[in-house]
Write the structure tokens for this entry.
Amino acid sequence: MAFAKTLLALALVLLLGRAWLQLCGLSVRENDTPVWGQRLETLAVSWLLGCVWLGWLVHMSVLLLGRVPVAIWWLALSVLVLALSRAWRQLLTFATGFISTQWRWPVLTRGEWLALFPLAILLLQIAQSFVTSISTSLGWDGLLLWGLKAKAIYLSSHSASDALWQYLNADVLNYSHRDYPLTFPASEAWVFVWCGGVNEQMLKLIVPLFWTALLVILSVRLCAVLPPVVALLCVCLLTGAPLLDYLAHTGYADVPLLAFAGSAAAFAAESLRRESVRAEWLALLLAAGGATVKKEGLIFAALLVAGWLFVRLARRRWPDTRRLLWQTLVAAALVIGPYWLFLWRYRLPSIDFLPLGALTPAHLGRLSAVGYYALTQMMSAQVFGYGWFVIAGLALWCWRAWRNPAAALLLWLCASYLGFSVGVFVLSSWPDYFAHVTTALPRLLAHALPVAVLLVGHLWAARFESEVEAAGAA
């Protein structure tokens, strides 16, 4: 029974996100994407936006009320009523058309038959993440860091209305990073609400859903610029990383951040490829959503927007630059704003890093050791497989395509985030800073891997296009 309730809760999150897509006019079909790709991508984006909506409500509730009353969860469902009242005719037309459709076995081309092999690998990896997660512990972060927040949110809606307030004001619980965002634990608390109690076993289905969403969005976006077999092989570089395979079936929030960051980068590159306003909004909303999952997401979003604006300015697209700037301000104010105000109100300390003003020359001496460790981790087959080797080789092979705007943005984003991942440990406040490095740096490096996969895909596509143009000119 608990499993059925959990499936209902997760399905409702997806429907909430789909409702917001409908209300915001972001569910427009694209001509260069197959229908099956559009539907899968819509489901994946809906899941991510549904989680952002729950996190936004929790942040606003804690900010204004100091707790999360039961009414907040019912308020979350109100968006479904709004979407149904506006789009019930479209839903009825879709349902009748779906039922009356005569389904036939598709006729596949040679390239599509070849694509079935990497597709099977991706499906097996997704299935493995779900199966393995059920029999695996949520991990330290999942149980204590995010689990405590989820339980406090749930209890503040039920038996102990001051549970979340006590948690946020308990200095003895500093080890659980009370300053971290509440979007991820909000989705866990949503499952508790629908299960009728704390059930940590059912939480194990959440992270594999984020992993699935990431793989779906990357596959569909790359299939829009590359032959399916090449696109899916690029995405398989992610599933070949042992660290990501481990994170995909634990309770760590790195995979949810990966899903938001990788999806935002994919839509940002898509907007540069064909000037899509819809892709711009999705990229900004997902990047802002990532900033409410983990603090690293805020750095990722800032780097993404900075590189995006630079590419726009370099191409002398002044109207597009102004539009992107105000879109960024709107997305940041609406999505990230409640979390910033939440931090300002509760004055929660950050325990892992020193303020920038505390930087000394002695701290800078850490860079060489941290940089060397980062290189050894990226080259380790036990951590990332051979993903970074393959990505570096393909990037060098496609060096003539570096002027492609999407590739330029992705290169900046990947390189700058890797630089941030190394440089941030200069300010580590741990007594043994290198213990902090070995604990957290590999997961930070993993955040850049989906961007690197997208980079290789767009470079490869640009190389194909240049070769076709050269052959045509000859």
Summary: Residues 97-103 have pLDDT under 50 and may be disordered. The radius of gyration is 22 Å.
